[in-house]
Amino acid sequence: xxxxxxxxxxxxxxxxxxxxxxxxxxxxxxxxxxxxxxxxxxxxxxxxxxxxxxxxxxxxxxxxxxxxxxxxxxxxxxxxxxxxxxxxxxxxxxxxxxxxxxxxxxxxxxxxxxxxxxxxxxxxxxxxxxxxxxxxxxxxxxxxxxxxxxxxxxxxxxxxxxxxxxxxxxxxxxxxxxxxxxxxxxxxxxxxxxxxxxxxxxxxxxxxxxxxxxxxxxxxxxxxxxxxxxxx
Length: 232
Known about the structure:
Layout: E1 3-14, E2 20-31, E3 35-39, H1 46-53, E4 61-66, E5 69-70, H2 76-86, E6 87-90, H3 102-113, H4 118-131, H5 147-159, E7 165-169, H6 177-189, E8 197-201, H7 205-208, E9 213-218, E10 221-227
Helix pairs in contact: 3-4, 3-5, 5-6
């Protein structure tokens, strides 16, 4: 399987008075179309690993490759360009801008990328929202919809620029069980959208066990990397 994102010997140490190791000697390859769960106890380095894969942080040792391209020597602007076009992010809290409508929030990364004229970008954003069951809410503001709907808007925003990789950090962590299941099912279907890959940090083992693969961390190291075969 061709690697979309790959960590090679990645270690991240915070240079505090007493140095803190977030992750250590991580080797991880995520192929095109894979749906990968990252699990582990609190403080095991799950989010730290996700931020390194998403080029939001830089390894102290080792390197991260995106679509075969080494990124450790890239300038800040070059990394930002990869993130904008190649990676969509979904976090535990939606981080929608309250002054924009649902449609406007989804269009923000599209406007930054500048790949589509405004009219086409608006049509694309509306189509994504429709596909996620949010067509009737696109002209509302975030405070006018439910928490589960806001998180679905965050997923739509992550999909806006048609990136090959979606990184999700506890995307259902702030939701009730019904809304969590809705968001999970949407994420589960994302790889079918143009062979996309998802890497999701989750504490929910029921969700993790229904993904294609589970990577388990303890004390910043991978202790388990297994293919899952459960029915969704």
